[in-house]
Amino acid sequence: MRxxxxxxxCPICKTNLDSxxxxxxxxxxxxxxxxxxxxxxxxxILQQAETAILTAKRAAQGKVGRLSIGFIGSATLSFLPDLIxxxxxxxxxxxxxxHDLYPVEMDKACDSGEIDxxxxxxxxxxxxxxxxxxxxxxxxxxxxxxxSRKVKSKKIRLADLSNERFILFHRQGAPGVFxxxxxxxxxxxxxxxxxxEPNSMQTILSLVEAxxxxxxxxxxxxxxxxxxxxxVRLIPDLYLDLIVAWRPGEPSIVLRTFLDxxxxxxxxxxxxxxxxxxxxxxxxxxxxxxxxAKAICCAxxxxxxxxxxxxxxxxxxxxxxxxxxxPDVRRRFGEKSLRYFRLLMAW
Length: 347
Prior knowledge:
The protein is α/β, with parallel strands linked by helices. Helices cover about 50% and strands about 20% of the residues. The strands form 3 sheets. Strands 3, 4, 5, 6, 7, 10, 11 and 12 form an 8-stranded mixed sheet that branches. Strands 1-2 form a two-stranded antiparallel ribbon. The N and C termini lie far apart (about 80 Å).
């Protein structure tokens, strides 16, 4: 029988070597000393060729390669970390380069080829001519007010903010965001008095907390932390899309695979974004938990009717604060609270 080493060398040696690298008998073939020397040099080359063939096949499936992604950090905080983690689990041999950029910076990076795809805000009319894009999710615009500001309802009319000082994200970095907000104000009959244009969403929250003015921002920044502000839904409802954009033409295999991955996870992305929007419920969060504590105390003191009234009020306030968002949060909160209340009643 022919050994594996002989089997791999025979075709090459017959074609390319004049010397006899095998000692043959009527039953088998044995590698000669000359063949051993040849095999020591040829084996790594053969292995590299086999690896290259396998890599080429995987690259054709979008499983190997490089992908550069631009994104807006504050707008993608609710879903991007988990999305990237799951993508890397599914495509571990695709090397990712992630760039946190302003929309204007992403436009330039996409033009130069520095990034392959951008998770950004809607493109200008001029940019739409040389970009492919699709909507990833709709991001509501909300008002940010100092916590000291008393709010009588869960929503506030945009027109009622006409006399306020506005702090808006700087137009140079995100002209689409700035122009959308200013255009919405003008549609309500006033031009906003812009007192500041920070280049950071976190700075906007800090300035509102310092009572330097109010802000209108995409609801996705509710994931950022600031204990001295409250988020309030606007009347009428206003939205600012979050899109993915890439250069026109036939995308690379890796980019096409990533786009397919986004489509497959579109529902999960929107669900995570809506779940994050439950942070708007912080408007009444303190009173909600105080009412829940009061319901428990009433149950312990043997006042079930009063406790039940407090519980119903708590659930109603939570539901109203969440509005159309976070139905899963509403359901889980109500079920868990009711279960605790029943246990206390039985006790």
